[in-house]
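Hey L., structure's done. Input below.
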Amino acid sequence: MRKKFNKAVFLTTILLALAGCGGGGGDSSNSPSTGTGTGTGTGTGTGTGTGTGTGTGTGTGTGTGTGTTSAMTMICAEGTGWQCSGGEVLARTNGIALTRSGVQAYGRSAMDAPMDASGLTLAGLSSSAKAEIRVQKSGSTVSKPRLLLSNLGISWDGTKDRPLIIDTFVPDAGRNVLNADGTVSDNVALPSYSDLSFYDYGTKGREAATQANYANNRYFPRSIPSRCESGTCRSTEILEPFANDSVDNLSHAKAVRLHGDGDVHAGDAPGGEILEGGNGHGVPFPGSKGYRAFESWSLQYANLAAWVTQDTVELAEWLLIAGTEHNQNRRGMVAFGDVTAPSSVPTSGTVTYTGTAYGWSSDAQYAGLNFSGTTVTIVVNYATRVVTATINGLPGGTLTASTTLGAAGSDNANYFTGVAGSGGGLSGRLFGPASGSAPPELAGVLSLPGTPVIAGFIAKRP
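Output:
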């Protein structure tokens, strides 16, 4: 069963409205620190550390050692000129995940539905959920976004998670591919619909077909016309081209794309026949299985990104017993960028950072943000390591949260985290060089399950 999206899409101040027809679309409380490990051995022994970090030690009889987390600095697979969040989740505290050079929070639709999923809840997502953002950066302007999403509980066959989502919002036909060296290519050629060694659903069937070959394909523009039941399907997947502007004294960028991930009608049946449920060669049409949206706000070193993916799950084509196909959406906020080197974070002085916050609340639907441009004040006492955040304009009113910056000299000296609201959390990172002065920028995310709210903030010092 296939779906079509046919409404207009707007971001930030206007809700993104996309309608489908025919169906479908944890927290472990550990934080990074220096850990101590104890091991026993005869002669020279090696010990494994426990706590948040992993430690090793050597000695005669009993060995002890001090362990640390992975380095909390930015390293991007694409190299110089890129800023990224890091692909590995190092810790999850108060509903917020820590990565090498970022922090992130997630939410999901409270109401999954045959048409458009809606609402917002912070419950029910796997503790292994992960978003990775990469952008090319020139000054404060971003380009070439790479959105990588995994372990979000999106399943085509009702059993296992779908393949890794890689979206680059490129307006040309092709494939997005994660290379062996960790880089993302967006210029890989898209095989013809007649290539049944690639589109192998028709030859292997639902259980043996290669799901990864039906993911991350960009089907349009194409020489073969778009075919659909109503005859009014779009001929492009891009609803809102990636574009830069300025908002709230920040560099701003956004994009929206319709996708066909999981649609087996990208290929044919053996002999060139159209697969059951299709009405032409070269289907899917744009948006047959959902949409994705990306929006970012940037300073020179810090970035805040909002992402949304709506997907058709439990697809009739991939399920042994059909009948439960529907839509769901996932969304998140990621603060990331060129983090301050932990060793250069100051140990004295108090600095006030001011900026803005953006986010979603309980009535979140589609890609549009519920609130944007609200004011934020972050006071960092580098001597006491106390970070006090005040965020105005949230749906529940002003929020004040007191968090703690990592210990001076530790790997996590550029990371602050703490409890916010009722059962929620607020975490952030410091960004930019701090040689002889305080870091120039900071950014972070907020997760409030009771309201619920997912938000991000970005700020700079005077």
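Residues 342-460 form a domain with the Porin fold (CATH 2.40.160.90). The chain has two domains: 82-337, 342-460.

-- N.
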